[in-house]
Amino acid sequence: MLRGLPGTGQTSMLQDVLAGRPTEVDLFAGRVVALGEQHGIPTPYNQTMAWVLSR
Question: What positions does the domain Ketopantoate reductase C-terminal occupy (predicted)?
Fold first, then answer.
């Protein structure tokens, strides 16, 4: 299947960034971070991804 895809394909997140639209980072990583804080569960990976991708 992957061989049939054009080499110029872009992920939806990259398309959003290039178009100046908000990404889904807050919807996913941001929500996990918020739930972790609410329940006292560390979420270092999601915190890092939310921080890096929101810059």
Answer: 8-51
The verdict on pTM exceeding 0.85 is no
Which of 28, 15, 31, 23 is CA-nearest to residue 55? 23
pLDDT at residue number 47: 93
Instruction: Give the torsion through C-alpha atoms of 44, 28, 49, 47, to 10 deg.
Output: -30
Q: What are phi and psi of 25, to 5 degrees?
A: -55, -50
Burial class (CB in 10 A: 0-12, 13-18, 19+), 22: exposed
